[in-house]
Each structure stands twice: as structure tokens, then as C-alpha cells.
Design goal:
It contains five helices and twelve strands. The protein is an alpha+beta fold and 209 residues long. The protein has two domains: 4-105, Luciferase, Domain 3 (Luciferase, domain 3), CATH 2.30.38; 108-201, ANL, C-terminal domain (GMP Synthetase, Chain A, domain 3). The protein is globular. Residues 205-209 have low confidence and may be disordered.
């Protein structure tokens, strides 16, 4: 099994070559852009970022939709002025052209002036043996603007504390990315397909979960 990347609007954007060596060397990548498909990574001003720097992924090519039917306002925000499609995904491209996804742009929050991507924090927390599942969201904070709150489903038999998870995370991610609050729950609100409904987490009490 190899990873690839695409969407309804773009079709297949990229895919990993069928090479055990490359899959190992490029672990976490969704591969190289396909034929006639171009990928850019840009900052908030739609300017290309340097190799390895994260930003929004833009896609261009014959498989990309020309636009949303009868939705002119949507098209204005979905495409750049020169016709590149805004995926809404945050990622980076390495020196060999391999694409790495980081998170959805809408999931990002800003803590103390720094961008925090929940998927990166969740991946770090999930490495703790006492964590069965985790979801991280940004919540208002008087000092930092926003701060990370982690919702944790703990493994049976583990008496996890917030301090335990902070110590674990500090060896894996930058200090400003470490959640400042932890809420332990029994489960998460989910869609019919099993996707965590993060927008509901802050409004759902632990008792209801």
C-alpha cells in the first residue's frame, strides 16, 4: 500500500512510486506530482515559499476543475488570480519534489503569534502508549490569543495526567505547540463515517461523552 493525494476538485495530484527504498526514505510523503500536474506551496500573500517550508498547497493541471457550477463567489476564493486551485491543505515540498501534507488550513490556530497545526500535535501525543485516541483544537486564551486543548481517550489501566503528556510532547515538538490543557473523555462526537467532529468538542461536556 502506498500513499497518494487528491480531491474531487483536483483529481489525483500525487502518488508514491512503487519503491520500498523510496517509501522508507520518504516516509510520510504523499509522493510526486503526476504527469501534467503542478504543485506550488505559498504563504499568506500567495508567494512561493522556500523548499521545505510549509504553506498552502496550490494545484494546476488538466485534471483540475475549471470551477464550481453557478457559484461565482466560491470560484473567486477557490482560485488564485492566475488560475491555481487552492486546496485548503497545508504542506511542504522537499528538495526532491516530494509532497508532504501537514493539516487542513482551517484546523490551524495561532498561539502567541505562532502557527500550530493540530495534526502534528496529535501525531506526537498518539505516540504515548497510554493514548488510544486524541483530538487537538485551539481555544481562546487571554494571554496567548489561542491555546491548544487536547481531548484524550486514555488506554485502560493508564492513569494519565496533563503533566505526563506535556513531558512526553516536549521531546517531540516545540514547546509552543504543546497543549496547555488536557480533557480526558470516553469517546469523541463523530460523523457517520467515523470522522471526529472537532467543532463540537468544546461544546460537549465530558459527562455527555
Amino acid at each position: 500500500m502506498v500513499d497518494g493525494y487528491g480531491s474531487t476538485e483536483t483529481g489525483t495530484v500525487s502518488g508514491m512510486p512503487l519503491s520500498k527504498e523510496l517509501i522508507g526514505n520518504k516516509a510520510g510523503s504523499v509522493g510526486l506530482p503526476g504527469p501534467l500536474t503542478a504543485v506550488r506551496v505559498v504563504d499568506e500573500r500567495d508567494e512561493d515559499v522556500s523548499i521545505g517550508v510549509s504553506g498552502e498547497i496550490l494545484v494546476s493541471g488538466p485534471s483540475v476543475t475549471p470551477g464550481y457550477w453557478n457559484q461565482p463567489e466560491e470560484n473567486l476564493t477557490a482560485f488564485t488570480t492566475d488560475g491555481w486551485f487552492r486546496t485548503g491543505d497545508v504542506g511542504r515540498v522537499d528538495e526532491d519534489g516530494y509532497v508532504f501534507l501537514i493539516d487542513r488550513q482551517k484546523n490551524m490556530f495561532i498561539s502567541g503569534g505562532e502557527n500550530v497545526y493540530p495534526a502534528e500535535v496529535e501525531a506526537a501525543m498518539a505516540e504515548h502508549p497510554g493514548v488510544v485516541d486524541v483530538a487537538v483544537v485551539g481555544v481562546p486564551d487571554q494571554f496567548w490569543g489561542e491555546a491548544g486543548r487536547a481531548y484524550i481517550v486514555a488506554a485502560p489501566g493508564f492513569q494519565l495526567t496533563h503533566a505526563d503528556l506535556v513531558d512526553h510532547c516536549r521531546s517531540l515538538i516545540a514547546r509552543y505547540k504543546v497543549p496547555r490543557e488536557t480533557v480526558f473523555v470516553g469517546d469523541f462526537p463523530r460523523t457517520g463515517s467515523g470522522k471526529v467532529q472537532k467543532h463540537l468538542l468544546a461544546d460537549v461536556s465530558v459527562a455527555r461523552l
